[in-house]
Amino acid sequence: MAADMKSPLRERKKALTRQALIDAAERLFEERGFDAVTVAEIADAANVSVKTLFVYFRSKEDLAFADTRLIEAVLAGLAGRPAGTAAAGVVAGVLIATLDGDEADRGLEGFHRAYGESAALRSGLLRMWADFEDGITVELAREAGTETTPHLRMHAIQLVGIIRLATSSEARAAVAGLSPSEAAARVRSMLDEAASAVARAFPA
Question: Rounded to a whole number, what is the largest CA-CA distance in the chain?
Answer without folding.
Answer: 61
